[in-house]
Design a protein that fits this description.
The complex is a heterodimer of chains A (about 160) and B (about 200). Chain A is mainly alpha-helical and about 160 residues long. Helices cover about 60% and strands about 5% of the residues of chain A. The longest helix of chain A has about 35 residues, at about 60-95. By secondary structure, chain B is mainly alpha-helical. Chain B has a two-stranded antiparallel sheet with strand order 1-2. Chain B is globular, with a radius of gyration of 17 Å. Classes of the chains: A mainly alpha (about 160), B mainly alpha (about 200). The interface between A and B is medium-sized, with 18 and 16 residues.
Amino acid sequence: MNSEPSGYYPVPQPDEIGIREKEDAMGAYLMMFATLAVGLPLPIINLVAAFIYLYLNRKTSRFVHFHALQSLYSQIPVTLLNAGMIIWLIIILVNDFNFTSEFKGYTIMVGVANLIYFIFSLIAAAKARKGLFYYFIFFGRLAYHRAYMIHSGPKEVAVNKPPTL
Amino acid sequence: MKLTIKHQETYSRGELILRTLFGWIYIAIPHGFLLFFVGLWGSILSFISFWIVLFTARYPQSFFEFQVGYYRWALRFRARLNNVADGYPTFGIKGTDENTSLDIPYPEKLSRGLLILRLLFGLFYVMIPHGFILLFRSIAAGFVIFIAWWIVLFTGKYPKGMHDFVTGTIRWGTRVNLYMGFMTDTYPPFTGKEIE
């Protein structure tokens, strides 16, 4: 069980962050290209790659942890939208090849969402490379909270008990 | 780059037979299965590294260390499958081995021009010439491994020349992979010998 938060760790300044950390933080956002690297049109691969990256780097430093979390969080809605489009596309292809206006509208919306995600991720990657923080709407705060929150106070101690008779 | 596989004084005949009969169960399948996924992750990192090198002229150090760890693991695995080293290969990218070693110096800066050159023309000036020679060398190494198998079985010793040839083939292939994986700017030499 987590203890109650009692504040936040101080945010490091660019000159306090090593080049390795900066590069690792930048790498988190570039996981959006994982699907291209593998060559499979499965949007879930990006999400899996971002998750693996977070898992491998979660203890590297808070700076890297923050960026890896923000990258992962921001990928979730985009991945869901992309997955929805692919599923819809498969249904259309299997059935009647009738590309309805609703599907076209959804596709455009997904395209715009991906473009926004792509641009903001590249900006965040460039900032991370310079040792800077870049907070996405909602996800930035969430990632900061998760990476920089101080957990203190008494931790719950596990107690062994006899079986209920 | 320095790749070595220790030439042992004697080789275990028991291990040789065990590897031949059951190696696919206790070495090839477990290591191959894991190496496939580690290699997949390595290819993702390699793809991303290309873009990072293009914009920053630096290969991210942690990515580089991961790739080196992967190459070391693959070397340990391959050395056993080719019977040039005894013992069971350790798992993991941080695993160590007394019979094999691979040191790849971290390049502080990489050339962006060479990076683009490799992307556009790497097939012609690296893959075709090296691939052509390595294809025949690998076939020859296969024969050498087969003959050495019998020699080890009867004498318990692996002829040094044969060992060097197999090791050299692995070394050559590794150099080509490193160059094409953007981990070095040094063009791979047309030899399997160690170069100072």
